[in-house]
């Protein structure tokens, strides 16, 4: 689809020029950690598969008009696509408070120019929307089919584009 055609013949080589300072900062602050694995490929493939299954869950929720559920599951897909880009490098967020923002900071810095939906504005819309969907506030508007549709299409596109980068085999371990 679009990304594969747009970047046909392009070799992605992520060797720390893009986002290097951000990644180093996050590692230095113990927000990102290196993980030891002989072959990161199977772990990354398993995470992409989990994200793909979650995408189907989001689609089912949308079809059932569970717009909050669709939005929340789409957010998970979007975040897991970013986590997969980190994992293929042997990196992961350390967990705890702020771990989703760590993924956001790292993938936006490294891959924002390649995966078009990995940018701060979209991440923030997703994070705030997920929070509103998960923590009901009767004074706030509920998610609509349009909200859920945006989340689903954005997550699907991000996962597809991240998969193209991962499958290209040119993102090296950190």
Write the layout of secondary structure elements.
Blueprint: H1 2-6, H2 20-28, E1 32-34, H3 40-63, H4 67-87, E2 91-93, H5 99-111, H6 120-134, H7 145-167
What can you tell me about this protein's structure?
The structure is a single chain. With 174 residues, the chain is mostly helical. It is 63% helix and 3% strand. It has seven helices and two strands. The chain has a two-stranded antiparallel sheet with strand order 1-2. α4 (67-87) crosses α5 (99-111). The radius of gyration is 16 Å and the shape is globular.
Low-pLDDT windows of residues:
1-16
Helix and strand run: HHEHHEHHH
Structural class: mainly alpha
* Rg of Cα set: 16 Å
First and last CA, distance: 29 Å
Q: What's the helical proportion of residues?
A: 55-70%
Percent of sequence in beta strands: under 5%
- In DSSP terms (H or I, runs of 4 or more residues), the helix count works out at 7
Estimate the mean pLDDT confidence: 88
Please state how the strands of the largest beta sheet are arranged side by side: 1-2
What is the number of E strands? 2
Largest pleated sheet: 2 strands, antiparallel
What is the 3D shape? globular
């Amino acid at each position: 689809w679009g990304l594969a055609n747009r970047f046909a013949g392009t070799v992605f080589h992520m060797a720390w020029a893009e986002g290097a300072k951000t990644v180093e900062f996050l590692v230095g602050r113990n927000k990102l950690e290196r993980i030891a694995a002989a072959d990161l490929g199977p772990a990354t493939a398993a995470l992409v598969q989990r994200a793909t299954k979650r995408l189907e869950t989001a689609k089912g929720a949308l079809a059932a008009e569970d717009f909050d559920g669709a939005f929340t599951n789409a957010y998970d897909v979007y975040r897991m696509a970013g986590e997969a880009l980190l994992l293929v490098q042997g990196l992961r967020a350390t967990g705890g408070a702020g771990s989703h923002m760590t993924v956001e900071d790292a993938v936006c810095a490294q891959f924002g120019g390649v995966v078009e939906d990995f940018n701060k504005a979209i991440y923030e819309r997703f994070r705030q929307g997920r929070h509103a969907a998960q923590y009901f506030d009767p004074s706030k508007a509920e998610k609509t089919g349009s909200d859920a549709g945006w989340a689903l299409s954005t997550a699907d596109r991000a996962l597809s584009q991240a998969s193209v980068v991962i499958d290209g085999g040119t993102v090296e371990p950190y």
